[in-house]
């Protein structure tokens, strides 16, 4: 059976336990670092988000849209460091509810979160200075339609930033499940070359591209070591929050599969920076 993408993310989500655990463990509110295991659901974690923030610092946008904002880790970082309005959209309604609850719990400035599909954005033309994708284009079936929508809602010369998993040269080696897909039907990876061509056709100019795959692999290997440590050390350590509380027990296979897929060059991790042509 093929699961809808919102079911993939929400079917195993245990937000009640998660929120109770956070309230108990951090009575003064969790920091953004303490939330990272569940609200930075991308390869590279909070460090990868800090890299994106450096690009934002250069651009200083005033109105930002994050597409596929998930549990909202990047939105909270932006809202706490920038004098900008940030709006998140996500197709998984339960992620949006969790996002709002985590913002309240952590005491970060409130932002708007809307449940909708990135292929049909509920915004007027030319109303954002910047759009960010962080591991969300990888779930979107129609890249072309999605990029057209981005161009429509962006101001002329607005920026588009992407931190995404792309298809590598050895895609036939791909192992599932991965954190963004339990089966191939939920994964919509395209190559760097195909994405560059689509960006150009859709009216974007590619300004910068960095292949982060090596760093991404090292980061995932460090996470795997930490996760193993937690399992053997349950008695002494207070229970930590984990992506298992979002993605379920399958996460125990997803993490190792990310390492295999990166090692085999079945996937790559890229950061791209583009400008909308006027
Ligand atoms: C791998 S998660 C990443 C979440 C978040 N950006 C992060 O890095 O923690 C992918 C997110 O994209 C959202 N998503 C997938 N397809 C979407 C679509 N068509 N429109 C809007 N959001 C979508 C999912 O619900 C999920 O929250």
Task: Provide the structure class.
Answer: alpha/beta
Mean pLDDT: 94
| Ligand roster | S-adenosylmethionine
The top level CATH class name: Alpha Beta
**Helix content range of the residues, please?**
40-55%
How many domains make up the 3D coordinates?
1
- The low-pLDDT segments are none
Describe this structure in words.
The chain is α/β, with parallel strands linked by helices. It has a single domain (5-218, 246-276), classed as Vaccinia Virus protein VP39 (Rossmann fold, 3-Layer(aba) Sandwich). 44% of the residues lie in helices and 19% in strands. It has helices at 5-10, 15-25, 32-39, 45-59, 73-81, 93-106, 143-153, 192-201, 213-232, 244-247, 251-263; strands at 63-67, 85-90, 112-115, 128-134, 154-167, 204-211, 267-276. It has a seven-stranded mixed β-sheet, sandwiched between helices. Helix 4 crosses helix 5. It starts with a helix and ends with a strand. The model has no long low-confidence stretch (mean pLDDT 94). The site of S-adenosylmethionine (SAM) has 24 residues, from helix 1 and strand 2.
In short:
The chain has 278 residues and is of the alpha/beta class.
């Amino acid at each position: 059976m093929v699961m809808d993408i919102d079911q993939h993310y929400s079917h195993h989500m245990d937000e009640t336990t998660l929120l109770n655990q956070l309230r108990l463990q951090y009575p003064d509110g969790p920091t953004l670092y303490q939330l990272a295991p569940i609200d930075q659901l991308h390869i590279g974690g909070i460090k990868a988000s800090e890299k994106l923030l450096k690009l934002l610092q250069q651009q200083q946008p005033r109105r930002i849209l994050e597409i596929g904002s998930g549990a909202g880790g990047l939105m909270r970082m932006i809202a706490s460091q920038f004098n900008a309005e940030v709006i998140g959209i996500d197709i998984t309604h339960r992620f949006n509810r969790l996002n709002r609850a985590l913002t309240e719990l952590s005491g970060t400035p409130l932002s708007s979160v809307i449940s909708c599909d990135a292929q049909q954005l509920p915004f007027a033309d030319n109303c954002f200075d910047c759009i960010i994708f962080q591991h969300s284009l990888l779930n979107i079936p129609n890249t072309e339609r999605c990029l057209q929508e981005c161009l429509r809602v962006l101001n002329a010369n607005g920026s588009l930033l992407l931190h995404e998993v792309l298809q590598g040269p050895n895609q036939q080696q791909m192992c599932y499940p991965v954190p963004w897909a339990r089966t191939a039907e939920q994964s919509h990876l395209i190559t760097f070359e195909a994405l560059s061509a689509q960006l150009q056709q859709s009216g974007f100019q590619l300004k910068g591209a960095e292949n982060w795959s090596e760093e991404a692999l090292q980061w995932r290997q460090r996470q795997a070591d930490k996760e193993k440590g937690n399992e053997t050390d349950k008695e002494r350590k207070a229970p930590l929050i984990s992506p298992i509380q979002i993605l379920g027990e399958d996460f125990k296979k997803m993490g190792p599969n990310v390492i295999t897929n990166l090692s085999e060059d079945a996937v790559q991790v890229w950061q791209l920076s583009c400008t909308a042509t006027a």
